[in-house]
Amino acid sequence: MKRVQIFTDGACSGNPGPGGWGTILRYNGVEKELSGGEKVTTNNRMELTAVIKGLEALKEPCEVELYSDSQYVCNALKLGWAKKWQANGWMRNKKEPALNPELWEKLLKLCEIHTLEINWVKGHAGHPENERCDRLAVAEAKKYA
Fold it and tell me: Which are the catalytic amino acids?
């Protein structure tokens, strides 16, 4: 299985508001940048979309080192929250629905194809790839502002 690094970030001006996402894929020293955005979205939706788009770009099952500054994404995957929400009909608990179920559904399906190692990185702390992803995401969000 190929081992790939994926770095992601999402940005939103207002929450909700115009948003963007950025992803860097790295395999064997070769990098590919992906980015996009939406006119009205949330930061968490953009964080999720960045991960989804990175995984969707892979052409075969891979071992993925995922780097994200989103505790929402990292914890929900690493601690099994997303799978619990799914098992509970997309409810976080008896009264609160889980947010972004359609994105989580896509992401969990992709997690069945690829093997993920989840790495949380502190945002805006000088991590080179995270900073690049942030610039990509912010540039996309500005297109909709």
Answer: 9-10, 47, 69, 124, 134
